[in-house]
Amino acid sequence: MNPQEILKAHLCKTINLTEEEFNYVFSHFKPKRFKKGEKIITEGDIVHDEYFVLSGCLKTYYINDNQKMFILQFAMCTWWASDYDALYNGARAIINLDCITDTEVLCLSDVDREKLCTEFDQIAYFFRWRSNRGYVASQKRLLSFMNNDAKYRYEELLSMYPQLYNLVPKHLIAAYLGVSRETLSRLYNE
Amino acid sequence: MNPQEILKAHLCKTINLTEEEFNYVFSHFKPKRFKKGEKIITEGDIVHDEYFVLSGCLKTYYINDNQKMFILQFAMCTWWASDYDALYNGARAIINLDCITDTEVLCLSDVDREKLCTEFDQIAYFFRWRSNRGYVASQKRLLSFMNNDAKYRYEELLSMYPQLYNLVPKHLIAAYLGVSRETLSRLYNE
């Protein structure tokens, strides 16, 4: 599928847009390509855009004072990523966004999203639905983090997203689970 | 302030409604009073409503197979609470919602929220904004959970919400931080 078809299929799972409406909406998205390892958002940035992934894989992560990395999110095809606190609230970015693999995205600015939400009730509905989903997923992950051990969370992650197994290096999966690489290796071998 | 004034002040921080519009919106909220300890949502329930707190304090929590309690959220005056996975997605509740103190709420059904969102762009905007905020807060809490020890998270919680100190028993604050009551007592005495 081309970028237009991927976005259209994604939106039309939730809302109805005519061909003409979709084409107008699509004209606000800017295609971009990034290389493996390239940084899209760096801690301290002002953030204007969010990114809809077409191919490849992104990660959002935080580096603490001891240089330990915590991964908040992976983002694969049809996932969205940004520093949403910075994007919504005009705060400086506290997280980083970069590319685990070569990645193709569609980039939507905060200004254009709000414009489209004003112009189309269906688009406003889509973004409300998306935020609701993100909130629920985030609460579930928090609960799993509090309640389950790393082995359980590792199996949960790979059963939900089996494609991560091949796409994402093991030390990054460890940083997502909040365990050391050694602990993760032990889980692999059990 | 009476219930009407509390909700109006809350909505009008984010959106503009005329007196007439607000009165119409308000007519969809049902006032309810619950006693300390009373259950509003029980695991397994079908959930139709969300709750806007006017006075008192609620908690949402999960009980695992070993009967250990994990608190997802406290909800005080002007906070919203429900099992949002159950509410948005029609799933059975996996969490519980009950009253830490006698509590007064305004209850809004899923059907009425969607009706109001269709009737007023401003209300749709409000709920999108609220979900965005919830998502960002949830991501921050997850990050804090991964990155900070219990002492740091305890101080962070009480500096953000000093009123919790008097409103919420210490064993519930421990269940929110994901530590034992004994660990929390030690932090108190340090």
TrEMBL record, chains A, B:
Task: Return the Pfam families for the record.
Answer: cNMP_binding (PF00027)
Superkingdom of origin: Bacteria
Start and end of every Cyclic nucleotide-binding domain?
16-71
UniProt cross-references to InterPro entries, sorted A to Z: cNMP-bd_dom (IPR000595), cNMP-bd_dom_sf (IPR018490), RmlC-like_jellyroll (IPR014710)
Q: Which CDD domains match?
A: CAP_ED
Write the protein's name. Answer: CRP-like cAMP-binding protein
What organism is listed for this UniProt entry?
Answer: Pedobacter duraquae
